[in-house]
Specification:
single chain; mainly alpha; 66% helix
């Protein structure tokens, strides 16, 4: 086969070569240039030596040109946003949350069983006071008292754990009169 007939055979396969290149390239706008570069290299090689299977050789040369182009291309990275927002809490916040939860669970387990059950049904299960009263066979007023005492127990335990003066450790305020001494 003459060089001219080999070149015309390759040119007739140009669409197949473009398809091959576009499947292997990220930037498909460069496909035409890559195929032209490969065809040019093949023609130059044909002048020096005989090519037995020009189409197979074209695919190899095309791979080589794509690889070379990829190596030359500058790597462009998006700028790093200094204010990246993550929906997840920070690790130290997670540790603090787990510790607070552990303390809460401990305080909850220290409550009398009925008070704890009323508190859980109201604040965790989301039941109304009336529903709790019906389920436990209590009056609504008894449910309210258990809830108030549970909240008071938790508040007292939180103040005690934080070391702040409060419900138990605070000095009692003296009743202030309207003026003068008695």
């Amino acid at each position: 086969m003459s060089d001219d007939s080999l070149i015309s055979e390759l040119l007739s396969q140009k669409d197949r070569l473009k398809g091959y290149a576009s499947r292997r390239m990220r930037d498909t706008s460069q496909v035409e240039d890559v195929v032209q570069e490969a065809l040019l290299r093949i023609v130059e090689q044909m002048r020096r030596t005989t090519i037995e299977n020009p189409l197979a050789y074209a695919y190899r040369v095309l791979d080589s040109v794509i690889y070379a182009q990829h190596r030359k291309a500058p790597v462009i990275h998006d700028p790093v946003d200094e204010q990246i927002v993550c929906d997840q809490p920070l690790v130290d916040e997670q540790v603090e949350y787990r510790e607070r939860f552990r303390q809460f669970a401990g305080r909850l387990s220290d409550m009398p069983p009925l008070r704890r059950q009323v508190f859980v049904m109201r604040h965790i299960d989301g039941l109304s006071r009336d529903a709790i009263a019906v389920r436990l066979g209590l009056s609504v007023e008894a449910v309210k008292k258990h809830l108030v005492r549970a909240m008071s127990d938790l508040a007292r335990a939180n103040l005690k754990a934080s070391g702040k003066p409060g419900l138990d450790g605070a000095p009692k305020n003296k009743k202030m009169g309207t003026g003068g001494s008695r």
